[in-house]
Structure formats: C-alpha cells, structure tokens
Amino acid sequence: MRGIEFVSLTDETFRRHTADDWGLVMSAKVIGTPDVKEKIIDLADRDGVLDHTEALTGVPAYSTRELSFTFEYLDSIEEWPDLFTEIRNFLHGRRLKIYEPDDPNYYYIGRVSVSNPSGGLVKAFSVVVRADTWKYPITGETVITEPVRASETIVLPNSWRPVCPTITTTGAVTFSFGGVSYSIAGAGTFRFPRFRLGYGLNRVTIVSGSGEITFTYQEGAI
Question: Among 16, 98, 142, 205, which lies 20 to 30 A Cα-Cα from 112?
Fold first, then answer.
C-alpha cells in the first residue's frame, strides 16, 4: 500500500510522508465511517418506533470517525530508535491534516496517536486518528461571487456538510433563502445562523441591492 501524508494545520511546509520521508511500509488501513447519532424511541403500546434522529435540525448528526493505519519498518535496525522518536514527535498527540492516496480529492483532520512498536527485526506499529466527521475538499473553501441584481437566483452547491456561509457584500442587499428574508445594510462581512446550506444545490434569490455579494463556505463529505 502507498503511504500517508501528515500535514500541520498552521504550516503547510511542516509535513511528512510515511513512505517517502520515513521509509515505512503500510500493511493495513481502515477509513472508518462516522456513526449516525440516532435518537430512537420504542413505545410498548405502538407499532414500530419513533425516529427523532432529524427532529432538531432536519438532517442527521454524526459522531467522529476513526482512521487507522499499520506500518512496518524493514530497513536498518540501528537507525530505528532515532527514526521512531522522530515519528512520535511529529505525530503523537497532534491534530493534523491527513492525506490518503486512494481518496485524492479530499483530506481528513484529526488528532493522531501512535502505538508502541512490536519487537523483533520487523518493527510494526499502528497510527490511529480520531478524525472530524467530515472529509474536506483539497481545493479549499468554496467561494462564489455574483453581481447583485434584483430577482436573480444564485446557486450555491454543497456536497453534504450543513454549513453557514460567510457573506461579504460591497453594498446593501436583501436576499431570500428557504422562505426567509435576510437584509444587509451596507458593505461588510456577515453570517446568519439561520442561513444554513444543505446537501445539493441551494438557491438564493436576490430581492434588492447593489454591488457584489460573495459567499464563502467549507464543504465537507462523508
């Protein structure tokens, strides 16, 4: 199997590749799926169950996900102690980005832990990541800028993760979304907690205003 790349959240130059930089062979890999936080009520005097999983927000919530990798070191045993010290110093306890080669369009973020290595000539150890629910596009945030024209519809695509966009305007604007109207008095950057994008194509209708409007948001997929 190919290696995994771990990257700092604050400094993109602070990165290590398990195969290219450390000479590790990945022998096992599990990319976990986050569990659905189900809320099920089973009443004795009614058929079936009451499923309240989506009652609060209209969409299910998910737990964190677990990524696990097993590595083996087959090179010089004399170099192993110093190498493993470097590996633990870089990974253990840190919250990092994780790039997985079989899913090249996305990355994960999570806190990493490193197990103790096995004995013998072949040194094997595991790396476990308690990762965010969502995997994120490597292209970064989605940014959509459009001129403000009354009655125009702006389409905001979203891969799944419910998200409240940041809105930047160059002038006053009023728009509607999901039957709710939102007004911005002048140029600036704003967020509305109720303005939340769901899965698919989200349509925003301009009611009035001038200038340009920009929507910025971080998509995420399962």
Answer: 142
- Per-residue model confidence as pLDDT tens digits over 39-53: 888 888 888 888 888
Beta strands 40-41 and 50-51 are antiparallel
What are the residues whose beta carbons fall under 8 Å from the beta carbon of 6, sequence distance 6 or more?
Answer: 15, 16, 18, 90, 91, 96, 97, 98, 99, 112
Q: Whose CA is closest to 18, among 129, 105, 121, 119? A: 129
User: What is the three-class DSSP state of 7?
Assistant: strand
Residue at 25: amino acid letter: V
Q: How far apart are CA 177 and CA 20, in angstroms?
A: 48
The DSSP H or E segment spanning 120 is none
Residue at 148: amino acid letter: V
Q: Which two tokens stand for residue 159?
A: 């891969």
Predicted structure pTM score? 0.89
User: By three-state DSSP, how is residue 25 classified?
Assistant: strand
Contact indicator for 126, 142 with CB cutoff of 8 Å: no
